[in-house]
Amino acid sequence: KEKEEAKKKIDEEKEKAKDAIKNASDLDDINNKKDSGLGNLDKEQGKAEESNNNVLDVEKDKAKEVIENTIEKAKENIDALENLSQEEKEEEKAKLDQEKDKAFASIDAGKNVDEVTNEQDRAEDRIAEQEKSSDERDAQKLSDAKDNAKDELEKAKQEAYAEAIVKTLNAIQPGLIEALNAKSNTELMNGIGQAV
Q1: Beta strands of 18-85 (E only): which ranges?
Q2: CB contact set of 107 (below 8 Å; sequence gap of 6+)
Q3: DSSP-assigned letters across all residues of 120-184
Q4: pLDDT per residue over 171-180, tens digit each?
Q5: Cβ–Cβ < 8 Å for 33, 24
Q6: For residue 6, which of 37, 48, 73, 124 is within the disulfide window of CB 3.0 to 4.6 Å?
């Protein structure tokens, strides 16, 4: 809208200069009106450029604010993850800060509103990907913890079985040895008796 208004004012100044030159009475008057018209055109052109720069600066500030808010929301979501340690959460949030710095630099380098808007969109996509990565890390940690707990339970069960078997064997071992000895003695005596 501001761009259209600036263009309209430049066109108006251009027409005024043309009309003034048409109505000029002599060569000096033509040169004076031409110079005056060019000066007015330059002045309007400067206003238009300043207006474009102001619009671009406003768009850059808006884009940065959106990125900042998106980052803060993502950090809140990371803080709410139940399976990551505080240190792991800080690592994830540091990655978001890197994305913010990258986005701000690209936004500042934008030469027009479209470039700024495109970089804002790309930054929001990267932030969403980083947030998804944090969620996946949290889910993987939970899955690993479940697997480890199952493994520990299985190991404890096997150890308990082994201990029970050892206790049982220890309990029956004296009687078993005695029975084997008695059987061996009986066979030995029977064997001797048959030989005689």
Answers
A1: none
A2: 60, 63, 64, 67, 116, 119, 120, 123
A3: HHHHHHHHHHHHHHHHHHHHHHHHHHHHHHHHHHHHHHHHHHHHHHHHHHHHHHHHHHHHHHHHH
A4: 777 666 666 6
A5: yes
A6: 48
Q: The tokens 């263009």 sit on which residue?
A: 7
What's the Rg (C-alpha) of the chain?
Answer: 44
What kind and span of H or E run contains 26? none
Cα 47-64-68 angle, rounded to 5 deg = 160
Whether the Cβ atoms of residue 28 and residue 51 lie closer than 8 Å to each other: no
The helix/strand/coil state of 25 is coil
Identity of the amino acid at 84: L
Q: What is the pLDDT of residues 100-113, one digit of tens each?
A: 999 999 999 988 88
Of the candidates 67, 160, 56, the residue with the CA atom closest to the CA atom of residue 115: 56
Write out pLDDT tens, residues 146-163: 888 888 888 888 888 888
